[in-house]
Amino acid sequence: MKKFNYYIIASILLLISLIFDRQIILFITSLRINVLNTFMIAIDYATTEIILFIIITLILLMAKKYKEIPVAWLALIIPLAITFLLKIIIHRQRPFEALQIENLVNVTNSSFPSGHTTASFAGIAILNTYIKKLKYLWLFLAILITFSRLYLGLHYLSDVIAGSIIGYGISSIIIASFNKYSKKKVK
To answer: Whole-prediction pTM value?
Structure first.
């Protein structure tokens, strides 16, 4: 029931954000200061989808969750593949391009949905299932990554909300399906 509520709330927020995307991104980028710019740029470079993939793999290895690694990989790769395809299909211009906001980071692909957010929220689903004690730390990291995408003018609020829905939603479904299949196979 909790996951269902998450999807309902996230979907409502997505619809509302589509209406206010422009105002929200202009407000957030108006808050820029040099020291925060440097910090957010560092977050951007340190949390690429590949780095998040490696971090989650290392966490699972250190926790000796070897059998879960292939499932975690699928739970990361499939949402990112969906995100990549949506970026190609929708081809939404990034906020810094559309609204003439100063560009602080070099990027070349489309805005909708956010790949960084997709990967970080997929990580929440993975760690919430396999290593519960890290879920709040990862939630903090996911929120920080998500905010950095807005702050840098790389994504609209709707981009990051969609990324969170895709990342958490698809990863949760993959993990739940695998766990259900594994239990049937054991019986």
So the answer is: 0.87
